[in-house]
Amino acid sequence: TILVIGANGQIGTELVNALRGVYGTERVIASDINNPTYAIRYSGPFEFVNVLDKDNLHHIFQKYQPTQVYQLAAILSAVGEQKPRMAWDLNMTGLIHVLDFAVEFGVKKVFWPSSIAVFGPHSPQYNTPQYCVMDPNTVYGFSKLAGERWCEYYNRKHGLDVRSLRYPGLIGWRANPGGGTTDYAVHIFHEALKNGRYESFLSANTALPMMYMDDAIRATLTLMDAPAQQICIRSSYNLGGISFTPAQLADEIKKHLPDFEISYAGDDPRQAIADSWPKSIDDSQAQTDWGWQLEFDLPKMTADMLENLKTVI
Ligand code: VAH
């Protein structure tokens, strides 16, 4: 069986969907601390899991003896700045509990998401390399940096086959983002279709690395399916995606919705978070080690997102 922890989230919902397509519904156990979302509830087995409750977590590992575990439960960058201690505790202790039980129960492979948020103001801003100065100044960012260290440590000390990706901002239509700084790039599509306008909380020229969810899910499955000897990075792989600003995204949307209008709010706390992150990422190591190739550029993503989103809102 495959256990997905944090199944209700933006990535979790899509990963459960994708993994069930590959392994069959009954073999993929969705789990979360909250009630299953509609997308999750009606698609297969679900368990309540609190990664901070060792007894509960141990019981789930005991019951399902998972061969793969995806530990996605986390608090993201914007919410993390409002609840720093909770974000550190969940993101750090939750990961360590999962790593410990993965070793104890002989789990074959573990996946854990990192983020481009592990880079900070002194990291190179363009084509940020796999290795460089990393001074993240958000709790979320340094919890992900520390988490990468833990993953590499468990691989080296216990031989655990744990794999990770530094996701850019993710854009998808099946599930909403949960409290991040890149959430604007999803909200803009919903607002464009519903109201024909959107007020961006990031300034017009704020370039960030982004990725369409279909690419992010394919990258995750490709990474997890690659032979272990091809995986040279046991902290977390850079994943680049596409870099664009809110203004560039708005212009692309206007090609489909000519009357769409964007405005800019200004003085939002998420602006400082976005300004601390790189504008583009070098993911050549992922390309070399396990054959990563991006499929969705900005035009292709925008067309696919609008086409699918209008069928569900
Ligand atoms: C966030 N969506 O905004 C997440 C992601 C790179 C951004 O880590 O916090």
Automatic annotation (TrEMBL):
<dbReference type="InterPro" id="IPR036291">
    <property type="entry name" value="NAD(P)-bd_dom_sf"/>
</dbReference>
<dbReference type="InterPro" id="IPR001509">
    <property type="entry name" value="Epimerase_deHydtase"/>
</dbReference>
<dbReference type="InterPro" id="IPR051225">
    <property type="entry name" value="NAD(P)_epim/dehydratase"/>
</dbReference>
<dbReference type="GO" id="GO:0008743">
    <property type="term" value="F:L-threonine 3-dehydrogenase activity"/>
</dbReference>
<dbReference type="Pfam" id="PF01370">
    <property type="entry name" value="Epimerase"/>
</dbReference>
<protein>
    <submittedName>
        <fullName>Nucleoside-diphosphate-sugar epimerase</fullName>
    </submittedName>
</protein>
<dbReference type="GO" id="GO:0006567">
    <property type="term" value="P:L-threonine catabolic process"/>
</dbReference>
<feature type="domain" description="NAD-dependent epimerase/dehydratase">
    <location>
        <begin position="2"/>
        <end position="231"/>
    </location>
</feature>
<comment type="similarity">
    <text>Belongs to the NAD(P)-dependent epimerase/dehydratase family.</text>
</comment>
